[in-house]
Structure prediction request, 314 residues.
Amino acid sequence: MHNAPMSHAQNAAPQLNEAASSYFVRSYAKINLTLDVLGKRADGYHELVTVMQTVDLYDTLCLTITEEDGVRVICSRPELSNEENLVVRAAQAMRRSFSLTQGLIIELYKRIPVAAGLGGGSSNAAAVLLALQQWWRLPLSLPDMLAMAASLGSDVPFFLRGGLAVCEGRGERITPLAPHWPTSMRWLLLLKPALGVSTATVFHSLPASDYTDGTCSQAVCTALAAKGELHLEHLHNSLARGVLELYPEVAEAREALLRAGAPCVRLSGSGPTLFAPFSLLDTATRVQQQLHAQGYEVYLTCTIHPNGVDVTFF
Ligand code: C5P
Prediction:
């Protein structure tokens, strides 16, 4: 994946959209409605089937052309203002593929919690790929774009389109699903326990006994396609048992959500963020206020289907 062929793209002569000096873009978070881990692969990754959906919690990026050499990120969370940030790697991948020398500053205003299972870093990287492709009019085909995204991280391809999708392989094989969301889940509380979790650590400590056969994700896809309600037992996450055991704070936060009246609580991705769906805004608000009073970080959100790249030129 890292060296996906891009010969036709490299031969093209990209043209900068000269009218704009800055480019703003939103980058949304996701939740995993299901996450079935099918088994371990020869390459060390795990084979997945996961149903993902973007939610209306977003970071804002501002890309600016600079005379400086290279790519630099300035993040509202200073610990992320470094070259390891996926936004820098995404921009560098684009520049390399098209032999561009144009310098770039990326300002990144974080609202999505970091290392939280909400895909924030992956979403930021996808936003940079989309923004540069559009801004610099780069003739990159969808398969090449997907390959570049996959080389940055397993979740990055999903964020090129967002919305509702089933993702397979290590997460990079995307099948978009027709937008549908059950009315019983119209409002979503996202509770981020006060710790960060490494996806690699969670996967590495996953026992084979937590592997599943993917039937939960399949059942959810079928129900969504029929525009029906979902059975709660199908909202399965193979990583949840291990995360709740490994991190007692996550188990405590789950109990707190249930005690406050959440009818259903699930882990998003490798966590530690938990999500709880509600049909009514006033119930969701009441539960959120109760958890805020207990000192928890809780976001009230809903699903969103970004219509292409959500950008503003200046
Ligand atoms: O692809 P990404 O860099 O986001 O993955 C982070 C880590 O999570 C990987 O290095 C791997 O250890 C683990 N992982 C996995 N199977 C997947 C996705 C991620 O084991 N399908």
User: Anything to note?
Assistant: The chain is about 30% helix and 25% strand. The chain has two domains: 7-177, 183-301.
